[in-house]
């Protein structure tokens, strides 16, 4: 006889447990000069994999900072510092992370940045403290390789790293847009990108030793060859993924968006690792997109949110100086034309054109390059100036586009960015949303885009070039000059 009061409820009879998710080991980046971590923490109660995870975040944060032009210019970045928040450290090293940081500081295996009063230096408006790896741990006999890789196998640590990645992916941001299906397709193709690390490392070591001469950066900031090597390693290992669409220009930013051009020849796709790649770049792409961003019919078709600009654009569409400007931009000859007119070298000519397009409207009588442009291309100059004088009364949506870090509209002082936004959105909507689907439709996959350029497998370059040109013709504009480069290591 069964007594009902003695029968346990079904949920108590059956022990319900969630299936435990297994995680693949992560290859963490550790300073090359770091002592043996297992031996280092023996008897301290600290977990070696948690130490590895902390250093791994140093390197991942440094890679993320390297993709932000504003951060790269700061003294913090130049000094090797990274901002690590208590939230991040808690995730990878538990709520006992202070024990780990104090231990590493005591052993002089990390450094903390302090103010002139001796207190910790925090990042502005955050709880992030600035740390760095001592230079002594980064100097090695292995050339630019200042790190080594060690596996993290502890389930709890791997789970923490996984959750940290997920939290970054789900973080809301008023400066970015959600990914669309085309971005998802391109993301899957990007996961097939790998680098020939041995050849790339050999190349970078020769560049660092001045055995190979390369062009200096326009900003004057020296490239970090160690970090470029780490970027390629992290992409190969799947440690660093970055898929963002910025609201400003709707550009698709990925882990290879800022890839130095000299490293493209070391790329391959995993499905055909021995098949060389080809890059197709639009010549003088920024000036080309400036010329079609003020094409009234194209704005109506591709940039409808900027339709209030159309009356101003209609006034110039038949003018001889606009037609000349558009032709020079399409044929890739504008900088050479400006060089001859101004008597400067190409870099100076390019810089002057960029200042005319991107800077705020200024008093013209004191600036010879603006006077010269106004004289040579009066309609284009007037159009640029008019667009950069528009306000949120003409284009209400810019209130959610030109934002300070606090999320507040920048106001009238941001109006000069309107032309830049038009150019970047024109580029993105043509390259990503019109040409990329055509390549997929014709079976030209995998491929990757780096803003205005495509990288495809050798053998697809002529078909890709034709599809690109055809799409611009369909839009009713002169196709840009397209440079085709077969990617071969130096």
Question: Mind explaining what this structure looks like?
Answer:
The chain has 490 residues and is of the alpha+beta class. The protein has 2 domains: 146 residues, no CATH class; 270 residues, no CATH class. The chain has 22 helices and 14 strands. The strands form 5 sheets. It has a 4-stranded antiparallel beta sheet. A hairpin with a 5-residue loop joins strand 8 and strand 9. The longest helix is centred in the last third of the chain and has 24 residues. The relative contact order is 0.10. The mean pLDDT is 90.
Key terms:
14 strands; 22 helices; four-stranded antiparallel sheet; alpha+beta; 490 residues
Terminal residue distance: 87 Å
> How much of the polypeptide forms β-strand, as a percent range?
5-15%
Please state how the strands of the largest beta sheet are arranged side by side: 12-13-11-14
Give the C-alpha Rg: 27 Å
Summarize the biggest pleated sheet: 4 strands, antiparallel
**Helix content class:** 40-55%
Number of domains: 2
User: Which structural category do the helix and sheet elements fall into?
Assistant: alpha+beta
Overall pLDDT metric: 90
Uncertain segments are none
Per DSSP E runs of 2 or more residues, the count of β-strands stands at 14
Number of helices: 22
* Shape estimate: globular
């Amino acid at each position: 006889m069964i007594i009902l009061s003695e029968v346990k409820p079904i949920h108590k009879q059956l022990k319900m447990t969630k299936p435990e998710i297994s995680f693949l080991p992560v290859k963490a980046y550790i300073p090359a000069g770091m002592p043996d971590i297992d031996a280092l923490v023996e008897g301290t109660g600290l977990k070696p994999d948690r130490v590895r995870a902390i250093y791994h975040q140093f390197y991942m944060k440094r890679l993320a900072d390297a993709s932000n032009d504003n951060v790269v210019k700061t003294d913090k970045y130049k000094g090797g510092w990274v901002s690590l928040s208590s939230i991040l450290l808690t995730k990878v090293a538990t709520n006992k992370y202070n024990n780990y940081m104090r231990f590493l500081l005591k052993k002089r295996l990390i450094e903390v940045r302090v103010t002139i009063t001796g207190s910790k230096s925090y990042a502005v408006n955050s709880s992030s403290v600035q740390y760095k790896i001592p230079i002594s741990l980064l100097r090695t006999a292995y050339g630019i390789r200042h790190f080594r890789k060690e596996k993290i196998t502890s389930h709890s640590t791997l789970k923490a790293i996984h959750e940290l990645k997920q939290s970054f992916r789900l973080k809301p941001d008023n400066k970015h847009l959600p990914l669309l299906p085309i971005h998802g397709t391109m993301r899957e193709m990007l996961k097939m990108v790998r680098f020939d690390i041995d050849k790339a490392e050999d190349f970078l070591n020769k560049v660092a030793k001045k055995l190979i001469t390369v062009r200096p950066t326009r900003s004057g900031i020296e490239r970090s060859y160690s970090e470029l090597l780490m970027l390629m390693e992290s992409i190969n290992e799947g440690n660093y993924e970055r898929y963002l669409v910025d609201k400003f220009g709707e550009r698709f930013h990925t882990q290879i968006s800022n890839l130095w051009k000299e490293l493209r020849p070391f790329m391959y796709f995993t499905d055909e690792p021995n098949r060389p790649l080809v890059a197709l770049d639009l010549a003088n792409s920024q000036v080309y997109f400036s010329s079609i961003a003020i094409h009234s019919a194209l704005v109506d078709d591709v940039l409808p949110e900027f339709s209030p600009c159309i009356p101003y654009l209609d006034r110039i569409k038949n003018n001889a100086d606009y037609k000349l400007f558009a032709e020079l931009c399409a044929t890739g000859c504008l900088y050479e034309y400006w060089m001859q007119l101004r008597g400067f070298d190409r870099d100076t000519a390019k810089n002057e054109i960029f200042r005319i397009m991107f800077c705020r409207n200024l008093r013209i009588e004191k600036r010879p390059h603006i006077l010269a442009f106004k004289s040579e291309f009066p309609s284009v100059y007037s159009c640029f100036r008019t667009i950069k004088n528009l306000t949120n009364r003409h284009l209400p949506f810019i209130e959610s586009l030109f934002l300070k870090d606090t999320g507040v509209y920048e106001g009238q002082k941001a109006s000069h960015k309107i032309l830049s936004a038009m150019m970047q959105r024109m580029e993105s909507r043509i390259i990503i949303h019109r040409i990329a689907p055509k390549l997929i439709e014709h079976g030209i996959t995998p491929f990757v885009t780096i803003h205005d350029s495509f990288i495809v497998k050798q053998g697809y370059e002529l078909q890709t070039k034709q599809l690109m040109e055809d799409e611009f013709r369909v839009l009713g504009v002169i196709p840009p000059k397209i440079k085709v480069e077969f990617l071969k290591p130096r």
